[in-house]
Amino acid sequence: MQKPAQPMPANVRELMIRHLPARSHIVLEAAGRLADEMGVPVFVVGGIVRDLLLGVSTFDLDLVVEGNGIDFARAFARDTGGQVSVHDRFGTATVTLEEGPRIDIATARKESYAQPAALPLVVPASIQDDLLRRDFTINALAVRLNAQRFGEMVDACNGQGDLAAQRIRILHSRSFLDDPTRIFRAIRFEQRLGFRMDRPTLACLRDAIATGVIGHLSAHRLSEELKRMFAERHPGRAIARMGELGVLRTIHPKLAWSEKLEGMLKRVGHAVAWHERSLPKHKLEVWLLYVMALLEGLPPKPVADILKRLALSKQEAEAIRAGHAHARTVLRRLAKRPAPKPSDVYRALAGFPRETVVFLLASAKSESVKRLIQAYATTYRQVKPSLTGASLKSLGLKPGPQFKKILGRLLDARLNGDVNSDMEERELARKLARV
Ligand code: ATP
Known about the structure:
By secondary structure, the chain is of the alpha+beta class. 54% of the residues lie in helices and 10% in strands. It contains 22 helices and 11 strands.
């Protein structure tokens, strides 16, 4: 085994002061005091502890109580003036504080799997057991919060050693079979943290894939994992790794890693970065763009099959289909010479979801077409004539189908800079009504 680079702390009180937002720290101390009053051990667990040891600041908190987590959550919400919502089926609760972290609270539990890829059977247990049901050693970490022992590490499987060695390791050899979402999680954490699975973990992952267990995952669980993976900073790397490990083709036999896909993913990355810089207020469903990139160039039948396998919402599927169905024609229209006017660019792109427009930007090869799409996203899309149907009426024009035509022409004129004021618009409207 590789030696850890740093000594492993048995108590992380100092690290918590340094790396947790002050508000989170106060909340954790309050949880510890309440746990003492109720006579139960309470812990902060999982990814938060991993991130704490890596020096990454996190906001939301996961707590585990060795006792009744729901009773604890209710008392905690009472103490802190927070809102509690209880998920009875899972024995968990969420406490939301005003301007504070979201706190998920669970009863320490043990899990067993009746069938591979099914949801587990759950019984209350100790913190050690609770850690042993987790995905990877680096996520099987807890820190005690009770006042006397605040900051005490519970490291069930040498997670700290694996963190130092930058290693993703499962806790037992059936792990990926029990829960194939862990296949996607392993790949996601590898890329996010720059870690690597150790050899036995990788072997188990390949064996699990070979059994076809990913095929048993429900559409919802599969698409949730892909969404989380594609919302990371470097989805392209995770997709490459899925290709290398044969995960892509278990989603659909037509999905495969290729140089073409690599290029597309890079261009999607650049287009998304451009959008974030230029339109920071407009949030994109970035993951959708990566699904579009994966499906690019596939015939309609596999595209339809994959969309069905992922059970995307109607709107999401529509954004993807639009990119597919129209990319070629739209890009050809924009590449025409002489260069299309702003109103032509508007007509070519209007009505597409924002994600589709950014995907078209990623698909465009020529710089001039890219510039037109960028101009549409930042400027043309927002342009409107200042006259409305009501203003046309007040000009004495008769309502009817020609209103729509006139408003369309006014929009074109605004986009092309042929009119620049309300007055000019009014004049043009009168002229158009006379024709
Ligand atoms: P992120 O930073 O992406 O939120 P996280 O580790 O906090 O990472 P969550 O999905 O919020 O991820 O899960 C919280 C914790 O729950 C994990 O750290 C892990 O201990 C446990 N966990 C989550 N998913 C699984 C799973 N599929 N199998 C076992 N344990 C899991």
